[in-house]
Amino acid sequence: MTDTAEDPKGSVTDSRPDGRGISFRKDPKRFLSAYAGQVGITGAFIALWLTFVFAAPDTFLKLDIYRAFAATIPMFGIVALPLTLVIVAGEIDLSFPSVMALGMVGFVLVWEATGNVGLAVLTALLIGAAAGLLNAFIVVKIGVPALVATIGTMFFFRGLATVLIGGRNITLAPTRDSILFRVFVGKFHGFPLQSFWLLLVAVAVWILLNRHKFGAAVYVIGDNIQTAELQGIKTGRVRMILFVLVGVAAAFAGILSSLFIVSFFPSVGEGQLLPALAAVFVGGTSVFGGKGTILGTVLGAFMIGTIQAGIVAVGLTGFYTELIYGAVIVVSVSIHAVVQRRFG
Amino acid sequence: MPSPEDQQRAPRLELRGVTKQFAGVKALSDVNFRLGRNEIVGLIGDNGAGKSTLIKIVCGYHEQTKGELLFDGVPVTNLTVEKARELGVAAVYQERALADLQTLWRNIFIGQEIVTRFGFLNVREMRRATQKLMLGSMGFTSTAVTPESVVKNFSGGEKQGIAITRALYFDAEILILDEPAVGLSISEIDKLLLFIQSIRDAGKSAILIDHNIFHVYEVADRVVVLDRGTIAGRFRPKHRSVIELTEIMREIAETGTSSVPDDPFEEGGKGEEVAS
Q: Which residues in chain B are closer than 8 Å to A224, comparing Cβ atoms?
């Protein structure tokens, strides 16, 4: 802390020799410019929320709507978090909705055979990891662009899931008695527990991205992969792990969504692609890679959840949801591209 | 195995009779090259002269077809990128040195973060170290620059300065700068020269690759001219004017050799005072 005292030049700069970040209290202007993206998304989130509070105070000032959010947001939010890392690294994964189904097929088959929910969960997560590993192999080892590779595996995994389960819908009612059911989708003061899992995943992914070597590598890879390689980062390995993380998260999200409705449908995960992508992009993560925050994605997920509820509250039919998600993605990505070109 | 004293006297880096062949094409033929201790050598040559091939061999990207590589007088075989890095070789490329969207402190520590157990970052320590480097070797005293500054907004010369500082911070012994002056304005080149000077001040060695003699004339202790895969001449800017060197370069470009004899290489590299 006394570095500046010995260094005559120290007085020239007001940046902090104690190694702490920029403080808002000490230097609000610099704080705002350094964290412009996160300040912007937080502002947008508050503005959107206030709009709904004024438009529908009866709904948005009561806890019930937030209990509803706590049930719907984790379904896509839990995947959106590791997906943020994938996109920061300059890659993409569109196959995760199908991995949600494929993992659940493993869950159902093992559960039907053994009656053991724990084993079923483990199977689903392992299948998620294996699916992610296949994506990683195609992208990193074979060298197919992630967009094309994961469109292909999106259909492949969905098809495989449907074939393996023979198109059956299955009730999961007997799992209600298991501890895992209560831990995953039980209620706490009326709040479905999957929302706590979402927060837990958010904290874990935040630490991984911001406070671990791995996350540091993710940023550099998305920013300039040649720099990363020249500085000795094992870029292939990092990218492979990212796809595996999304696979595991997708399988987990599949378990939560199925247990929550106490049934398995082979279509589980369908309809989660757009909200998850929208959450990431609304949250300010750059399509070009190298930039993105977990706070952004969490707030983005809340905004998408709010819009979801808003569509229903305003009385629009479900037909409008895809239209609005599509518009939200295009607009947020465009704003980001313009901002990056103008001010970047 | 040479004794420690021999190692102290040996050139930092030596190439003996190095030849590199790519699918029948000779990129380098029988090259002898020495880089002394605390010496800055300008490696000059046209496109296709073999500069980058030579550098890639030293960095461990390519293996020579024939010939020997010696670091501190010790022959090294099967050099890999990792091994070259361990031996203190650090390459600085203008375009690929830094990650533009990341902060200064993250750039300093790319791939070599200060971590606690289990690979968690010690962010505070890295910011503190960056702050020290900024005030010290980087010479950023403006209040506008902090360890949290994103490097995108720095100029080309400053970016290379950051990369050079990073290499020195991590104890690089041999810095290789690939076309460091390309695309820089005159004032930027001046800044860059100061950073290159800091390599000498730190007691390290450097190879500056360039096709333009003017870029290296001021800072290089020695200029080695490469032409069509062979060394066409070795000169000391101290002994020759820039006009004279330009004439020599022109002659080499036309005939492939120089009629002017090489200036001598002094053991220890640095200068006459250590000449044996």
A: 96, 98-100
